[in-house]
Specification:
The complex is a heterodimer of chains A (252) and B (266). By secondary structure, chain A is of the alpha+beta class. Chain A is 37% helix and 15% strand. In chain B, 39% of the residues are buried. The mean pLDDT of chain B is 94. The chains are: A alpha+beta (252), B mainly alpha (266).
Chain lengths: 252, 266
């Protein structure tokens, strides 16, 4: 069954732009990305939109649909009522390049700042063995498709541009957590650098990153809060303070 | 101009384009928490109507002040003076910092009140009104890291409140083996407080979350998986236990003032 859909698309670039209304056909079972492509094919030939897999696995078609950060390829048109106008804008936490395409290079710069996994020196490549229970926690974080919706919705950088220099964001906190929970990673001080260099302390746990994650990774409960607790272990834990372990860990 | 209105970002004048009723959840949270704060403040300063016939209000337990009625104390242990600088100190004021601190620094409540009271942010993808944000990196919010201290204190309080629930199984004459509505209220309140504490993120971390190798600690891993299940419902336990504690206090107050009669089943 076909219906007419009222779509409002943001068009412009980094200097100016605005919302433009279009009416487009939508077929049963289609997603927002499908109707955007139809607009591109029939009415706005120069509409810029980033996409790739159309299966929710590449993380390319991140945008904001009725104000919510979402993947356009995973958002059913049928989830909106027939008289509702669907508003589509680029991610609002990042600089816009053109129309629905934003410059997300901030995230790649942050990725480079996270120290990589450090393999035990005594184990040659291929010798490492791990139990399944030891890798399960990290495997959840490996589901990340780098759509950057969590980064987009995080108010620390969305609402405060100046924080971008000192805040890595939820996507990279799960990367840090993944490495810190890795049974074989030998790099010391991940907790301390997470707090002091990557801005873990700026997160106030409002869980928006978890709400928007299309892979349903429990970013806050399973990565950010455990990392905050690990920071408490080395900096604020009363039992460790009284035991005098704090100083010993500093020396390490 | 900052935030979503920063230069280079898509020029959109609205603070949010969300069309759902995103404000309902923070509004309800604000209303419930604010009501609780008003009531708890009134009760903390009242300094009366907290004990009647082996029922003690959780707001006043453990009763450590010399101003406490003798029956409400733990074996008569009252190390704290009834007055400080000629100011009559309600017994509740001495102890409430601990449960209050536990809830204030709780990872769930932080989300709740940052959104509903501080609007930081009021909801996801809704621009917050503040021009500057430093999170929990400096005073006073760096004190959120004291959650673990309050967690340990909260466990001690749970022991006292469980003791109170057991004591409530006495009848008016002090004989054991009786059950009243008041007993049920205190048992429910202390049970929910245990669930709230055991589902806490700090508990989850302490019991096993801090480990790198679960396979080397099978017992702690098993406990961690159990606490992780509880942790999934931490938000619910936070609200249920708050409501149960408030109701337990209301119930004891009503019984103490004579407005309600504590009904004994047997």
């Amino acid at each position: 069954m076909t219906r007419k859909l009222n779509l409002r698309i943001w068009r412009g670039d980094s200097t100016d732009g605005g919302l433009q209304d279009v009416v487009v056909e939508a077929n049963e079972g289609e997603v927002v990305l499908d109707v955007i492509h139809r607009v591109q094919a029939t009415q706005m030939g120069d509409l810029a939109v980033r996409w790739n897999c159309k299966a929710g696995k590449c993380g390319s078609c991140s945008m904001e649909i009725n104000g919510k950060p979402r993947l356009a390829c995973m958002t059913q048109v049928a989830s909106y009522s027939e008289d509702e106008t669907i508003t589509v804008t680029p991610l609002r936490a990042f600089p816009v390049i053109k129309d629905l395409v934003t410059d997300v290079s901030f995230n790649y710069r942050k990725a480079m700042e996270i120290p990589a996994y450090e393999h035990p020196k005594e184990l040659a490549p291929g010798e490492a063995r791990m139990e399944q229970v030891d890798v399960e926690r990290s495997q959840e974080f490996r589901k990340c498709i780098e759509c950057f919706l969590c980064q987009d919705t995080c108010h620390v950088i969305r609402d405060h541009e100046e924080n971008k220099k000192s805040f890595a964001g939820p996507r990279f906190f799960i990367r840090i957590a993944e490495l810190d929970m890795h049974p074989l990673d030998m790099l010391k001080n991940r907790k301390r650098t997470a707090q002091e260099e990557h801005g873990l302390g700026m997160c106030n746990i409002t869980k928006c990153c978890t709400e928007v994650c299309p892979e349903h990774i429990k970013i806050t409960d399973n990565a950010i809060i455990p990392m905050k607790e690990r920071v408490v272990d080395i900096k604020y834990d009363p039992a460790r303070m009284f035991a005098g372990l704090l100083k010993r860990e500093k020396r390490n | 101009m900052s935030g979503v209105f920063s230069p280079g970002r898509a020029k959109i004048k609205e603070r949010t384009l969300r069309t759902d009723k995103w404000w309902i959840e923070p509004a309800i949270t604000f209303g419930v928490l604010f009501s609780f704060i008003i009531y708890a403040t009134f009760r903390a300063f009242e300094g009366a109507n907290y004990y009647k016939d082996h029922l003690i209000s959780p707001f006043y337990s453990p009763c450590l002040s010399q101003a406490c009625v003798p029956e409400a104390t733990i074996f008569g242990f009252t190390p704290v003076s009834a007055e400080i600088f000629n100011f009559a100190l309600s017994p509740a004021l001495i102890i409430l910092i601990f449960p209050l601190g536990f809830r204030m620094t709780c990872y769930y409540y932080r989300k709740a009140y940052y959104r509903s009271f501080w609007l930081s942010p009021p909801a996801c993808a809704v621009a917050e009104p503040h021009t500057k944000y430093t999170g929990e990196t400096r005073a006073p919010l760096i004190l959120q890291n004291a959650h673990r201290w309050f967690f340990y204190a909260g466990l001690v309080f749970n022991v006292f409140l469980t003791y109170d629930a057991i004591i409530s199984l006495k009848n008016v004459e002090g004989q054991w083996g009786h059950l009243s509505v008041g007993s049920l209220v205190l048992i429910l309140s202390s049970t929910l407080l245990w669930f709230y504490s055991l589902s806490c993120h700090t508990c989850r971390h302490t019991i096993g979350g801090r480990l790198k190798n679960f396979s080397k600690h099978p017992l702690r891993y098993k406990l961690w998986t159990r606490v992780s299940i509880l942790n999934h419902y931490h938000q619910q336990f936070a609200w249920y236990s708050l409501g149960a504690v408030a109701f337990a206090d209301i119930y004891v107050r009503q019984v103490a003032t004579g407005a309600w009669t504590n009904f004994y089943f047997f």
